[in-house]
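Reply to dn_fold:

You asked what the input looked like. This is it:
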Amino acid sequence: MQVLKETTSYRASLRGRIIECAMQEFAMHGIRGVRMDDIASALGISKRTLYEIFRDKETLLFEGVKVYEQRKKEMLKEYSEAGHHVMDIILEAYRMKMEEVRAVNPAFYIDLVKYPKLDLHMKENKLHTHDDFIAFMQRGVEEGFLRPDVNYDMIPHMFDAIGQYILSNQLIQKYSIEELFSNYFLTALRGLCTEEGIRLIDEVVSNTKTQ
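and this is what came back:
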């Protein structure tokens, strides 16, 4: 019984290590640029062991993205529960995203949409979080940072359309991810904000430029 418990614990630990290693490699080299052999070699394990835990690269990527999403969600939840208002939370999410894109190879984002299982998961996840998004934006209206005359039901669709346009027109090859995300996100966000919300955006952007 003890041996079974230790084996299960080892497998769980190894699974976590594989995900961490794989996501680091994907972020550095792009998803297509990393083979399962590379991941096994980096961890010092056999390919057989790797395939016993993840049957293919798409499954590994899928699980890695889910871990990343959950980690980000928990960080923002903790930040929110510390007493921050809606604009603080939005701008913290923006800061986190900017840190991410500075560290990630653009090829990762280009490759990401080429995996059907992951693409479907991301679309379903957006549907599941729709009501939470609307409630969050309404809270921003009540706090005086977001405009009350906006149809917030449309906003996720508009952001999706912009993201798809960027990828389909290969703008990533012309501009940096950081520049693309900063310009389209902050421009759109300013359009949703009251004067007080815009003031906070400008303050954060100004501080970012001086760092």
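The chain has a mean pLDDT of 89.
Hope that clears it up.
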